[in-house]
């Protein structure tokens, strides 16, 4: 994957499983956010950092009008269209990321083989943590474009460590516009 390293600063895709949204970035600029359907609890979408390894036009059937295969080991996962648009927004797939056909066609035209794709659980993928936080009188903050976790902590008078712990963040440097952050009481 080293030869694709330079592209990290180009376009990339972020998929938030909690919000069921796919965000397309060019550099650090958010270009578009799309609703998606993701893996159901019995066949969840794998989280991690991957890349687009193949692009197929008109795969047909349940894959809709476009298929973009991902470098996820141990299975055949991709971002694709659907012949069941009502499934978008739900936890419905066998692990793939489903998009409306018109959305996947727009995205397909923009991405290249090697485009980085990061799939995150997102805040809210562990409902018991959010419910517990809400019962403790915790507040919620929706991340705005350009905001850092440090700025959010300072605004609420909380330590960075307490916010990282409350949100169970593996990498606190990666926060995204639209993400919900729990502010501990």
UniProtKB/TrEMBL annotation:
**Gene Ontology MF terms:** glycosyltransferase activity; peptidoglycan L,D-transpeptidase activity
User: What is any Pfam family matched here?
Assistant: YkuD
A GO BP term here is: cell wall organization
Tell me its family.
Belongs to the YkuD family.
Q: Which InterPro entries match?
A: LD-transpeptidase, LD_TPept_cat_dom, LysM, LysM_dom_sf, Transpep_catalytic_dom
Q: Where is the active site?
A: 80, 96
Official protein name in the record? Uncharacterized protein
Q: Which Gene3D superfamilies match?
A: L,D-transpeptidase catalytic domain-like, LysM domain
Organism domain of life: Bacteria
Alphabetically sorted, this entry's keywords are: Cell shape, Cell wall biogenesis/degradation, Glycosyltransferase, Hydrolase, Peptidoglycan synthesis, Transferase
Q: In which pathway does it act?
A: Cell wall biogenesis; peptidoglycan biosynthesis
**Domain LysM: from-to ranges:** 139-183
Respond yes or no to whether keyword Glycosyltransferase is given for this record: yes
Recorded hits in PROSITE patterns, A to Z, give:
LD_TPASE, LYSM
Report the residue ranges that make up the L,D-TPase catalytic domain in this protein: 11-120
């Amino acid at each position: 994957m080293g030869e694709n390293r330079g592209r990290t600063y180009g376009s990339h895709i972020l998929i938030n499983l909690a919000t069921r949204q796919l965000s397309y970035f060019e550099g650090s600029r958010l270009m578009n956010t799309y609703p998606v359907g993701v893996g159901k609890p019995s066949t969840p979408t794998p989280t991690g950092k991957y890349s687009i390894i193949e692009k197929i036009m008109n795969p047909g059937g349940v894959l809709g009008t476009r298929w973009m295969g991902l470098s996820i080991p141990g299975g055949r996962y991709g971002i694709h269209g659907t012949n069941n648009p009502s499934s978008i927004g739900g936890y419905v797939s066998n692990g793939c990321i489903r998009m409306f056909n018109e959305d996947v066609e727009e995205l397909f035209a923009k991405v290249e083989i090697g485009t980085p794709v990061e799939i995150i659980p997102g805040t809210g993928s562990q409902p018991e943590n959010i419910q517990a936080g809400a019962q403790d009188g915790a507040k919620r903050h929706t991340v705005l474009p350009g905001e850092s976790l440090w700025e959010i902590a300072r605004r609420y008078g909380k330590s960075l460590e307490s916010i990282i712990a409350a949100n169970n963040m593996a990498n606190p440097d990666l926060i995204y516009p639209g993400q919900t952050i729990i502010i501990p009481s």
